[in-house]
Amino acid sequence: MLEQHMTSPLHGSRLMPQALDDHAILTPDRLYASIPRDRDLSAGFIDISCKDMARCTNFMAAWIVKQIGNSTDFETLSYIGIPDLRIAAVFLGAVKAGYKMLLPSPRNPPLTNLSLMDQTSCSKILYTAEVTPVVHQLLKINNGMRCIEIPSFQEILSSDPQPYPFSKAFGDAKNDPIVVLHSSGSTGIPKPITMTHATFAVLDRERDLPKVTGRKNRDYSIWDFNGGGRFYTVFPYFHLAGFLSILVNPILTESSSPVLGPPLMPPSGSLLKDMMRHQDICALYLPPSVAEQLLLEPNGIEFFKKLDFVCYTGGPFSPAAGEKLSRVTTLCPLYGSTEAFQVPQLAPAPEDWAWMEWNPNFKLEMQPSPDEDGAFELVLFADPSTENMSALNHNLPGVSEYRTKDLFKQHPRKTELWQYYGRRDDIIVLSNGEKFNPVPMELMIQGYPTVTGALIVGQGRSRATLLIETQRDASPESFEGLCEEIWPLIEKANRLLPAQGRILRRSIIVSNPEKPFTRAGKGTIVRKLTEKAYQSEIDALYASQSAVIMPANSLPTLQPTLKPVFEERSVLEFVRGTIAVAFPELGDIGNEDDLFSKGLDSVLIIQLIQDLKIVLRDSSPGQDFSWLDTRAIYHHSSLESLSKLLTHFLNNDKFPMGGGIHHRTTKMEELVRKYTEGLQAPKQPRASFNPSRFVAILGSTGFLGTYIVGSLLSLDSVETVYCLNRGSDAQARTQTALRSIGQFSQLTFQKAKFISMRLDTRNLGLSDADLSNISRVDTIIYNSWKPDFSIPLLSFEKPFLSGLRNIIDICASSDRQPSLLFISSIAAVGHWAQVHGSQTTIPETPIQDVGVALPMGYGESKCVAERILQVAHETCGIPVTILRVGQIGGSTTAAITEWPTVLGVMGRNATDTSAGWPVQEWLLSIIKTSKALGAFPTHVAPVDWIPVDTLGTMVASIAVEEELDLGIFNAVHPEVTSWDTLLNTLVTKFVISGEKISLPAWLDKMREAVASGKFDRDSLPAVKFEPFLRLLGDGLENMRCDSSNTISVTKRGVHSLSPDILAAWLKDWRF
């Protein structure tokens, strides 16, 4: 158990390189750390003693000097590597050689890391082989960096170097800089924080903090294990918690030794369980999400009973999980920052496990937050008296007051207890989960001469809005002119934001001179108070979906040439002009170009409709334009088609109805004929079947694509997997994604070859060499499609249907005659029952009637693709496999946490714990809207969601091992769960209540809510899916799919969809 130790006279005056050398001499067998021999933990662990680590340090010190010489002025040397024990040898060796070590996060964008290197005058990088792609990205931008690959840990460990002395006295060396970590960068570019020997001496002295009678200190001394002990941590070395765990604890504590997991395996509950089975671990230091995953497993609670404590940071435990764990072990929520380190605490009563109590001997204040009622900001203080107890004195010398920007809530009864509440930072999270930092754009706009302030809002909304503050003497007449004048600057600034975060012309509010922005004492805008002051204007903007503040004369006008006749040419130019004003980047759009394919999503289409109606109502007073909605644009999505529709209405006062089922099936059959024209029979019969050794996949970087690639690479029979993607960063994204799901292996990843392609170009735009390689594969998997339910069929023609024909041509012309596996959709046959009457079960057979497609562009396009493939099979003899995928669920393993974006360009947050399931926007919209309406729709769809890891394995198995001529698979879960189970999960697991009503009644209720004006569209996001949901009638819950073929190739079966699994997949969606 834990014990507080007597203070050693050495505490607070030790230099880490010396202290390690002392351990190597006095207690050579003292355990430094334990590391796994292999990814398979059953192979055992290697215990690294202090003597071993001192030898590794001496080797690296001499190696560094040999490579670049020693430093006499603490030159900055950067290290980028995987999270293994080499960091300890490199860091301590560099300090012995006179350097200070910069530890940038490999998951930072290249420009961020180069900025850190520039700020610290760093021109040399040491790196491990595994992060070579990261280093190459840096060199592409700055080829002046000197980059040196370090030896493997095995080579370092097996070395036998001469001792490399480090004989400085603490008094002389205490202010020498030794390491540079960086801030999180949550509010801007990360800042380097330089630390000295004295910084870590503060931790060493925390044993000396005065005791409070009857209380136990909770500070760095908790790591003083009586007689030694092992703890498991998952934090990487570039994180303060990881740096302390891997480099400081083994040296400066009373023998607490970290146990490290496989460096390229992301932390997860299953890995934690395996670690605890193979190691005698007495403590954990990790984010709560990892512990919660283990707790969800059968008998998971038993693993925690032998622990002395669980330290956690990076977020809170869920109340239910925390309560369970607090009954079997001690939970220690730690709080700290790179700048100030951990704030010393007192251990509260067990029932207050979720709260923190600061050590009263530490200088801090909890100051009421000016922009959050009931919240307090933690403020730390430094002065000469805190030199031996506060890292602030050394990390930020000269700073006497440090405002952490972290907010806390006070316990309602025990006023000495505090609970972390959030950040005072500026990050905006849109309703779809997209995060962005508005500050760079705000600063750019504030630089305009007549603008005194700019503020972007949109927390929880579907899009962002810009508030502009002008000079006090500005007149109302100048507001509109200002917006027009400043628009080019806003367009430029928009490039700093994600697509849905960009500012539209009609999403701008100019402040009232009588209501200036609220500012803090130092002149900065107080975001929340200013937003609150303009709440009514903001709500009105979102509710109406239109905003001023665009000059009225910026929209084109429309007048009949000879009353009441409107010419189609004039209407077309009017529509073109409206688009050009709202979306300048589409100024050169062609008459037949599809609007959706040019990048306009459903949100932007709503904006276009509002702009059109403004002018149409002026040109034709009294006419009802309510019919002009997203459905009208959906079916008339080119300039020419929309102009003809408007001309017909303006001249005849009638809205021309479409041709119904016949009209849509005619368009579908036309596309089938277009993309099968000219297909020819093969010149020679196909060779006999052999298991595929060479596989190509088009679309490897998405959610499903990652799991398919991981499964293919794991198969011994597969020699090469060619990954074809439209982007140039596919290799880094795939590597990162495979790490995040625990399927990355450096050895197998060598089998993956990445090629850039252009779907709608002949031969996919491949070079002769790449085309030659692709022509020799055994199987091609086509997994590249736009998952958008709100765009029409023609929006999928290019590049997806045209790309399919290009793939078929490659297959047909290849001597190898590869088979083609197409990832289709159940939506391709979603209207089966409507076409076939009483036959409600969808068979695993080819489509004969395109009318079975769900009447939406996505389903229709997949149906057209299936028909094209059938013709290609019949004409060219190409073996074809079609997988009709339903809703894809999350992973059954739910492998998550801190390391997933390490080589990263994926953009997922490192602390994301969404059980690996990206937000499914249609489902999230239904949940959010139901919450607002207080009502749930019933019978929407069967919950036959197949886990993504199961589906990935299935696709790989079929692609490699199955001999099929024309194979059809309905890839849905064989055990259908009711929609009601999902609703009950929302009620019981997430406490979302509401009545249950039919889908049509629910849609009517939503429409009434919109018409009432009491809700804005952000509260009712399902509005944009209304056309799609109306297509479902009373719901498709009774639809069933024959999945016999699927069951036959799913070797390990499919996990049942229990409420717990559904809750795990949904738990981090923002309801």
Quaternary state of this entry equals single chain
Task: Give the amount of beta strand, in percent.
Answer: 15-25%
Number of domains: 4
- Net shape: globular
Task: Enumerate the spans where pLDDT stays under 50 for 5 or more consecutive residues.
Answer: 1-9, 545-553, 895-915
CATH superfamily of the largest domain: ANL, N-terminal domain
**According to CATH, what is the class of the largest domain?**
Alpha Beta
Average pLDDT figure: 84
* Sequence of strands across the biggest β-sheet: 30-29-28-31-32-34-38
Structural class of the secondary structure composition?
alpha/beta
SS summary, helix count: 36
Structure description:
By secondary structure, the chain is of the alpha/beta class. It has four domains: 16-420, Rossmann fold, CATH 3.40.50; 437-551, ANL, C-terminal domain (GMP Synthetase, Chain A, domain 3); 555-657, Non-ribosomal Peptide Synthetase Peptidyl Carrier Protein, Chain A (Orthogonal Bundle), CATH 1.10.1200; 694-1066, Rossmann fold (3-Layer(aba) Sandwich). The chain has a seven-stranded parallel β-sheet with strand order 30-29-28-31-32-34-38, with helices on both faces. Helix 1 (16-26) packs across helix 2 (50-68) and helix 2 packs across helix 3 (86-96). The radius of gyration is 32 Å and the shape is globular. Residues 1-9, 545-553 and 895-915 have low confidence and may be disordered.
